[in-house]
Amino acid sequence: MEQKGIERVYRDVEFLTSLRPFRNYLNTDSLNKASHYIYESFKQYSDCVSFQEFEAYGNTYRNVLCSINTEKEERIIIGAHYDVAGDTPGADDNASCIAGLLEILRLLYDKKTRHRIDFAAYVLEEPPFFGTEKMGSFIHAKSLYENSVKIKVMISLEMIGFFSDKKNSQQFPLPFMRLFYPDTGNFIGVVGNTFQRKITVRIRDLMRKGSDIPVYSLNAPSIIPGVDFSDHRNFWRFGYNAVMITDTAFYRNPNYHRRTDTIATLDFDRMYSVIKSVAYAVLNL
């Protein structure tokens, strides 16, 4: 069964990385093909699927939203962005996580979770929109806040497919962090802000139970480069608990924002372990 899951995830990454022109903000046709693919994939497992459209630079862009167990009031949001930076295939960044998002839905759609689970595929995470109020995740987080939606935690999936067993393959923003984390890039990280250590550690511990992938956590302020480099940042802005699940991006992956970020560089066995561990955490939060 797990091999079939790995094959599904591979096909999802393969589709997204094969789109041409590349799925950046300039190429709305490719973004629409990606969003349609995600929408149709969501529809296979939920009747509660929609587009959230908004305008930027004179174009219409859209998040893709899906929910299960909608009778529950408090929500867990799982999000990942489907756009890429520039002319890059974006296998790890961030097709790996859209594939992960779809597979988590497949693993959980028929489970009775304690919370409503919302799955969000975001557009415009990458430059030139990163850090602005035109990020798809800002649009989503703001709408939830304005509607007083109760959220237990938002989980942002940001690059989950690149691993290395080579010594010193893992880099860090601050040298002293080598004292607390492995120097081999074969683990996954759970990153939260300084004030949300409890939920960060809880998710880390559940992920450790959910699969055999090594999982480490970090709580740090946003002044540390990379801590807020994804869609969770916009949920922090509205006071929600939010964490990022990541292979640490440019601190490990030399293909970050390059044309070499291809499907051939991903470790699908380990990636699937991450997906299973997140699904287990969501089921047991």
Automatic annotation (TrEMBL):
One of its GO terms (biological process) is proteolysis. Residues 63-280 form the Peptidase M28 domain. GO terms for molecular function: metalloexopeptidase activity. PANTHER family: METALLOPEPTIDASE M28 FAMILY MEMBER (PTHR12147), PEPTIDASE M28 DOMAIN-CONTAINING PROTEIN (PTHR12147:SF26). This is Peptidase family M28. It comes from Persephonella hydrogeniphila.
